Amino acid sequence: MADTALPAESAVAFQTPSIRRLIILSYWVAVIIGLPIWLYTTSIQRLSLSESQVISLQGQPVDIPVNLYLDDVDNILANSDHFVRTLQTSLQSCTSSAGLALVVSNAQSSTSDYDYRLVLKAGSADCKIDGRSLRWEVNRANKASLATQMTATLCELLAPRSSAADERRVVQYAPKVRLSFSLLNEEVFMEDSFSSWNMESLFQGHVAPLLERLSPLHNFSVESQTQVYAPLAFDPQRVDNGHVISRDQLTVFVNSAEWTLASGVTTDPVLHFLLFIPSKEHRPLQIESSIEHDDYFKAFLVPQWGGVVIYNPPALGQPLGPLPDTVLQDVLSIYKNQLLALLGVSANCRCITDSSDISQWQLDALMRRRTIENVNRSVDALNSIVKVVNSIQQMPVGKDVREDVNTALDALAKFYPPLPLSPSELLAYSARALSTSSHAFFNPGMLALLYFPDAHNYAVYLPLFAPILVPLFVTGIKEFKVWRKQRKQQKLDSHKKAE
Amino acid sequence: MILSCDFLAAQAYSDRFTESLVIRPLEDGKVASLFTFTTLMAHASGRDPINDSEDKPQHYTIFPLSLGQILREYAITELHLTLNAGKWDYLHWGTPEDADVGSGAEMWAWMADGGADSIDSRWVGVRNAVSGLLCASLSSLSIQRTTSPLLAFPPLGDLPVIRPTNQTDASKQYHLRHASLPSEHVCTENLTPFLKLLPCKSSSGLASLLNPHKLFDADWHGMGVHVRWLERKGVEVKLTFQAVVDPVRYSPTHSRDASLGSMFDRAIEKPCPVAAESMIQVKSPTDAVFHLSPDAHMENGIAVYDLAEAEYPLDISLRWPAELSFNYLFSSVHTSAPIRVTRVLRDASQTHGRLTVSIINESNHTQYVAYLETVPWFIQFYLHTLRITVDGEPRPDLLHRLSYTPAIPHADPTVFEPIFTLPPLKALRFTMEVEKAFLRYTEHPPDAQRGWDLPPAVVLPIQNPDLPFPISPYKSQRIYTSTLLVDLPTPDFSMPYNVILMTSTLVALFFANIFNTLTRRFVWIQTAVA
Amino acid sequence: MSIVQKVKAILSRDEITSAKLRLQRRRRITNFLVQRMTLLRALLYVAGYTWLLLLPLPQLGRGIYIDENALQPGQVNTYWDWSNVHSADLYLGQLEELRDRNASKAERADFVRTELLKMGISSEVQPYTFALSTEVLTGQNAYGVLSAPRSSGTEAIVISASWISQRDGIETLNLRGVATILALAKFLKGYSLWAKDLIFVVTDDYMSGMHAFLSAYHDAVPNNLATPPLNVTSGVIWTALNIEYPGHSFSEIGIFHEGLNARLPNQDLINSFHVVSAHTGLVQVTLYDTLYGARPFTELRNLLPSVLKDHPIVDGYLRRARNILQHTSFQTLGKASGPHGLFHQYRIDAFTLYAIPAMGPHGFHAIGKIMESTLRTTNNLLERLHASLFFYIFTTSGTFLKIGAYLPSVICISIATMIAALQSWVNAGWQQIQTISVPDKKDKEDASSKEIVTLDALIQWTTRPRPVLLTIVVMLLSHGAMAVAWRIMSYSFFRQIPWLMYGSVGLLALSSLVLPVLLVEREILLSPAFQKTLKAFSLSLTSTVLSITSLLNFSLSAVLSIAFLPTNFPINANNKGLRTNELISHLVLASLGLILIDSQESVKDWELFGVWFAPFITIVYIPLFLQAALIPLINILYT
């Protein structure tokens, strides 16, 4: 080597290899510590959802246990056990399809108060409901057809079938429902039009009890208003006696642009009940081929939205004032039926004597139906959340989302397997599951970083990272090489010494 | 908005709707008109946020349901909202019939405290609900614009004592929230829902005159919603629409003759049947040769028309037969406000500026005024630079009392509330240095950058400056200054990536230098023989 | 030797040798550069100056375009018609009547105010007084604010006319300009479509009136101005249009856009005006007060052979050259080319429409239409115009030079100067000694290191100390002396007696030359170390000044880059003739600056408008020449 004559590099002022190595090392330490911090601070928070549970729920049928006790008071049946079995099997078809796990058995002493009793008595063939028990009077003559009759009735009571048309009417379930009653004058006149109605007091008398009965199902809030100018969006057809609204005009009858019906404050579903009073030139206003032939009232029902009653007042020339209470009473009774239809209360069967009231059986059936709907809907919601989160990697999943999902799962746990709870309790759980799961699904935080992909980050910061990392690597490697070489050298020297 | 039960029967029949229109010719040939629609819901009272729930049944007759729902949901005792377009010219137009003429949107509410959700959450709620109701963009009235001034916005009605406390404390149960958005534009989309709140909509009565095409060509127009509770009366909602139109601009001969037809190009076809009372008043100038048709019966200088007796179609016309074309110099009418305020913010540089306010006392006796300045945090006052002068002479003694809430950066605005003594026929002038903050880049608006609007300042004439708080006892008419536009230092947003690239390259450069010098190895190298 | 082996060799090479090779490579490169440094400088000079010459070429420029889409120039139908022209004529009649009975400033202002009040536009009169060191300017502005319907009055547009129109030192009354303002005010009030307030200003005098108005409006009243605060105000002013209409009719409209201290309005404004007047007014737009078709430099043309004389390329070149020179003459001195120039310092875009007097065909009708349409355009504006459109040079009214097209010229020269400075800095510290020695045979096989060896063998360097401190002191002396001179020039006492003033200034300059010669002993002064260091410092300062001013005021830096050329030549200690020439040329150039200041009343501009041309010349420009002159002076004195 030519350079051997030269002094060692350590002799050059102010440099020792150890310090230099320390410097390089410290740079690397900084980088290695910094990297995870940087990654952590720039990464999106994606908490893990308990997917396995959610997916496992998908497609599992819910079976709500229903116990029916046969209580043969007058010992009509020879072999009650056999009868029970036949009843069980014959009922199976309709109940299982409705998602019920029906157990028919002989009367026991201790039964929880939400089990059903079927009391057989001797007497004229007749049935009567009180509470959750059904009194069935049989005359011993025709016991043969008893099972079949009973099956039909019980099916109707426990798992009432509703036609597709009815299904479409029924509003989707929500724990809170807002009922809004509006008195709409198409145009106001000095006589024979109504600036107000006495809804306040009449409501208490007529509708309130019904709502009270339905309270386990929904929590109702009520409001009413009157409008004196509520024009129609279309012109009804002129006929010899008054005007007629055709079928397709019914669909556009509600003029939501002009009538201020929408509620700004809540997101709860609102059921509107309108009393529409046509202007003088439109009276009497008929609905084309309407069923009932009362010429004062015309009523129709807007699926999932509410009910409308058209009232053509007789020309009595009474001054502008409140609506007569008698009229309002009739209107309210129409509203009641419309409300029941919208809520999906099943039609009365023959055993129910007073038609005004809703029997416990109907209520329970409805609650069970709602429960099953809710459970299915919330399971769907959860599944779709999981799907979305998995498909979009950029989507953040915050704490609140996870909490919502977990609460929903806890609530759903009550149904897999179903606990022996009262229908109202079950409904409450299902409602909570539904609300929390949908709340999680519509969580705004999940859209936050959706539109800022990582590629941008790297593209932007490349001019910073590249020039910094390259020299770090090069010098690191170089230094390492030198160090190894020196090690070798030292080894050799030591060997030499040894020899 | 729920009735206490003992009035059930009474309520349905004793709600009352009244409407009135006041027309006033102005000094500079324009005509000011004020529509007022008042609906009283008898014996009702605001919801107590603690005791009664939102779910009690609510029944309305002519009171607008959609508004009632909002008031009840958020338990609002008193609510005021004004949407104005334009700058009210106090010099030529005098004091407005309806005091709240601040440019843009302004909203304030009195709420009783307590209950599940806090005052502020309810304030946010009612803000969004009302902006939904009137299609206004009030939801952008963030906390950066919300304040609770002490003096300028006293409750106009009474405040029910909601909890049995000793009377003195009753006022303490209530809180004020106020916000204003000067850049809000008022237009048809606000008027349409506004009209829906009226029982007769725009189809009859005075409301039928509210014709957007004409109104939104006016020199100034504004609408207001005022809800208050009156003891032994009930809840009253007052809807106002105010407009200043310029007949001179419309008429080919530059005359100032005006009529309902020319101002609104409508005449009133029929009255609103549910209106218990509907009046048109014309404040006719006394001195001028002034002709009014059809004839009205005069009540101390004011011509009054009652729509109940009027014959239809009703078109009132104001004429000055003497003059062919209007000459502004020799206007017969003289309208001017007792107090006038001018406010300017001149920015010497991008970062600093000076606020200059002069309050002119036109009357010949001493007056007291409470001044209110609320500016977002990015304008910071230097309070120590406050200088009060009257025609050049420093007069610190005129500052009677001062309350000052400094801003919280990126959050609350500054509130500056002095009480001044105004010497007669003099202009009090005070200046203050301000600093403009440098915003975070996310805080700049995404849309066109023309600068930031500052809300109008408010001046409230008061009788006795020594009355106690917390709830301001002063119920006189507010005076609004014009709004201000201030441009903050704004980066060029058209090329953010270039900036990032540039800086990171520089950083890399420095790094490389330092790193090299720190880690270079020095060795002896023999290049040649000497 | 195959590539593989090469690569192997490189890899196997141990660190010492590789380092050695790197070192040698570096040396070779530096040597290469050092040897050709002077050549490089020469190239840069040539490039720079030729670039300056080429600026008028059409290839460098490009056509104007509208950057801001919101402007939508010329997209509206105008309503200005003959009835408005008639009202303008009526106003003109009254104004002429005022002129004929030469009414006082107060009467004039009051007339305008009353007319505005009659229209229902709130307006007032603003009296003002400037107390300058030499004179006192008083005047009365009249202005009115038409507040736009339904607008919150936070933004405004100014339409102004000064009472006097001034072109090439000739003053004429701007009566038609004022009449246009009044007629416009009356006409525009009839429309409710304004989103911004309109401020109509009729200022007294030519420039001072507008200066008084703007300072009062922006609450930035300087000490030498006395004026009451304005009572009728509006919001932020965005744009301003100033009308000069001296003749009784006009053929073309000329644009004047240069502001104080070489500030310019946003180009979009001028471009959109160009579009408007071309489409709506059907009036030819030109630059300054020369007609679009004019053929400048006639005598220069006559020198050319007849073939070239009217050749379109030559013609075009000369026309653009003329416009650029006009632009430069305004900007170099930091003068505004009209009242509009006062707006720019408040971030307001403004320019002057100059109706070039002619026998026709245009009159009130055309200018009214154009004004209306332009105002509608500016009325559309929602945000500040884009920041990148403030750097441009108009070559014709329809074409302009982008910053990239003109800036490099000066930068080249500045770089060359800096290189010269560095060279002389090196030479100050190092000295070459020629030695002859045989290249050693030791490592002949190492071909790569051969030439290095020879180089090192032949050239030897010795170092010598650089008298840095002394040099800095000398430089500071010259700058300090001229700073004192500047104070003197701005004292009213001295300005009354010019000979005294310039005498003392000359004395100061002289002292800054003589003092070092007297105080420092001969050897040091004569030593190349000192001379070269001084040259190095003053040149580097020159280069810095050039590159900085090139952004602030391109025209000025272009002029400087030419002026400073003589200082760039190397020192020659021996040739008597040359150094006397040098000395004289430097002193002449220095005094030229002084003459310029005097002839252009730049000191007054500084007092009134804060134009920094005069102080810059005195405190920066002249000292640099003094420093350059010092070296030849020494050499003459001592040899």
From TrEMBL, chain A:
The keyword Membrane appears for this protein: yes
> Which pathway does it serve?
Glycolipid biosynthesis; glycosylphosphatidylinositol-anchor biosynthesis
Mainly resides where?
Answer: endoplasmic reticulum
Share an example GO biological-process annotation for this protein.
attachment of GPI anchor to protein
Which keywords has UniProt assigned to this entry?
Endoplasmic reticulum, Glycoprotein, GPI-anchor biosynthesis, Membrane, Transmembrane, Transmembrane helix
**Membrane-related topology note:** Multi-pass membrane protein
Signal sequence region: none
**Which GO cellular component terms are attached?**
GPI-anchor transamidase complex
TM ranges: 22-40, 458-477
Q: Where in the cell is it found?
A: Endoplasmic reticulum membrane
Q: What protein family does this chain belong to?
A: Belongs to the PIGS family.
Q: What is this protein called?
A: GPI transamidase component PIG-S
TrEMBL record, chain B:
- Output the Pfam families linked to this UniProt entry: Gpi16
Per the record, the coiled-coil ranges are none
According to its record, what are the GO cellular component terms? GPI-anchor transamidase complex
Statement: the UniProt record of this protein carries the keyword Lipoprotein: no
Mention one GO biological process in which this protein takes part, according to its record.
Answer: attachment of GPI anchor to protein
What keywords were assigned to this record? Membrane, Transmembrane, Transmembrane helix
Which InterPro entries does this UniProt record tie to the protein?
A: PIG-T (IPR007245)
* Residues annotated as signal peptide: none
Q: Which PANTHER family match?
A: GPI TRANSAMIDASE COMPONENT PIG-T, GPI TRANSAMIDASE COMPONENT PIG-T-RELATED
Q: What is this protein called?
A: Gpi16 subunit, GPI transamidase component
- Source organism of this protein record: Sistotremastrum niveocremeum HHB9708
Instruction: Tell me the classification of the organism that encodes this protein.
Output: Eukaryota, Fungi, Dikarya, Basidiomycota, Agaricomycotina
UniProtKB/TrEMBL annotation, chain C:
Question: What is one Pfam family matched by this protein?
Answer: Gaa1
Keywords assigned: Membrane, Transmembrane, Transmembrane helix
- Respond yes or no to whether keyword Membrane is given for this record: yes
**What domain of life?**
Eukaryota
Question: Which residue ranges traverse the bilayer?
Answer: 32-54, 403-422, 468-488, 500-520, 541-563, 611-638
Q: Which GO terms describe its cellular component?
A: GPI-anchor transamidase complex
Q: Which GO terms describe its biological process?
A: attachment of GPI anchor to protein
Name of the protein this chain belongs to: Gaa1-domain-containing protein
From what organism does this protein derive?
Sistotremastrum suecicum HHB10207 ss-3
